User: Fold these one by one.
Assistant:
Number 1:
Amino acid sequence: MGGENLKERAQAFQSKKRLGQHFLINQETLVRIAHSQDISPLDHILEIGPGLGFLTSVLLETGASITAVELDIDCVKVLNDLTCPQLKVIHQDFLQCNLAEILEEKTKVIGNIPYQITTPILCRLLGEIGEPTPWLKSIQSIVLTVQQELAKRLVARAGEDDYSQISVLVQYFTEAKLLFTVAPEDFYPIPEVTSAVVRLVPHVSPPVQCNDHKLLRQVVKAGFKQRRKMLKNNLSFLAYDQEIIMAVFDKLNFDPQVRAERLDLQQFALLANELSKTKQSSKNNMSLSV
């Protein structure tokens, strides 16, 4: 299946802008993406948004079984023409799928996904901090082609310009790595942005200890709410008195002027744990005074 043939097939298809369809037509890149998963015939692959099946065809050559979830009925018709016993095509919106019924005990996830719904897809796979999805334990690895700008945020560390709320979420659940970039010309239609392939490998267990995961989520969200503001000011969104916040900062040896982008996941967890203690202490004091 040569590159020119892929381009011609993509051009012949009426792509749908509302679905964010940009078909990857570079054969070398498709092979490189497939090989990044180290796939064997014993593996089960969940492919998100297979489109016209260009990556699907490469994956089928590995001998693995593949479940492909595709929203566009016209693409589903093309995929059904592959007529391979290893391939199961599901016509459904991935964000509405019951993944518990799709994922096998050990599944590798792969996909060239619509950029406008990358974050919802990640949350659908991983969950929220402290609330992993029921199927996360079945996922061995995730390889996604996403917008380069977002890829940088997914792998960013504390102190880096791209570090954000989604960075913290991804690091809570996985070890993330940016594998390589993909030029706009490798797609049809040609997107206006450069893409990148990222690999996420779920942790066996969360890398931090937290006493109140709901509070941790709130602290991270508040911290990045206005990222140019100092963290102590952003935490006021959680209705904590500045005196309490400064006492916690002093105990943790945090710079009073620190911004959220300087804190790593471990420091966010420590902050949430200390704020949780102050909340519990206040409740206890109120109980004693009644």
Number 2:
Amino acid sequence: MPVVVDVDYRPDQWDSAADFAAEVRTLLRSATLAIGTEEEIDAAATGAGAADPAAALLAAGIEALVVKRGARGATIVRAHGPRVDVAPFPVDVLNVLGAGDAFASGLLYGYLQGWPLERAARMGNACGAIIVTRHGCANFMPTLDEVAAFVAARGEAAI
């Protein structure tokens, strides 16, 4: 069974970044995939001794790491193969609350559909872009039909 870990670092909930990092890297040994922002990946790699924070997390045995990069889209890092940047959907940002959760939900939807990770991350980018244009969070997450209309309105084929 695939296990996906959202590397959600909240500094105020940990004694130190090193404590957080040790626990996350232990958790990743049982995971297939991890998702996190650049800052969260850096925190999770604290004390690992790797020059590349993503490499430190991949060393735990996950197949891939998806780095959420906000307005710059996402990057997929695999243990073997090139890093792949996944294009963002430029929008006017009204509210960032829920953006990461929206991204994760879109990514997980595609992942569970068996899509290539690049396509799943593009779905995540669309969901994240939609939610930041709304004045709300959980109750304003986009539906599949809304994502399809959002993508089509930008002249792109379906995700």
Number 3:
Amino acid sequence: MAMPMYLGIDAGGTKTDCAVSNGAELLGQTTGASCKLAGVGPESARQRLQGTILNACKVAKISPRELQRVCIGMSGASSEEAAAWARQAIQEVASGEIYVVGDHVIAHRAAFGTSSGVLVVSGTGSIVFGRNQRGESARAGGRGPVASDEGSGFWIGKEAVAAALRSYDAGSSNGLLSTIAGHWKVPREEVVRGAYTCSVPKLAELAASISAAADAGDKAAREVAQWAGKELAALAGAVITRLWPQGGVVRVALAGGVLQGSALVRGAFCDAIRERHPAASVSFTCVRPVLGALEIAAHLDVHGAAQ
């Protein structure tokens, strides 16, 4: 009898990760371009998602029709329209049951398994999701760039552009305008003229350059990076307070390109969270959400609920 095959998918804002296993060992994994609906549109997102799935199965040397279960973690999973799109796109190239969950759910599973803890994610967007020893869960942030996503790559880009323009309007320069213009490969004047037209992906991609400038000692960039860490700590603090009102040791894990790519953001986060919750135990171990999706796919009961 053939072993069952499982597929885990992390549909992030900057990339799509896929991994295949037989429940006992990792058989293949691959990374493709982002298939985020809001970023690239339904048709392009479908092609990218399907292409990454097919590549992962090719690396694993299996047919996608051999898959027994698939778990995809994506932002907007609570929207029935988005979840239906994901199911249809996957069904066109693969077989098996399909389980659609939030990207924070697969990241939490990757960080803690079925144990308690607080997962802080900062990539293109941001969210904090926690589960305590009683199985109660809570979240903060993650409600989109207009009114939320504090401390995310988008937030860092937006605040950096805003700080650069404030400095420009005051007749001075804080260095950020040159950093932003250099990253976008445009004249400084074009940043001033067209900043209001910036898209979420275009702002989010600035985070790496702002982090590099901060590491090089740019004061304004350092202020933005440290502010991002404090904002993420405020979100994490809200979740900890709700789930552990009596205090106690709480495990905290960090995920996403911003936190994993900037020591300054991580440092500011740790300082701020320990000031609010001294017993918080922060881990810097790299969290790979796609492995959480794979674990969920391999451990679903017959009713489709994660064990």
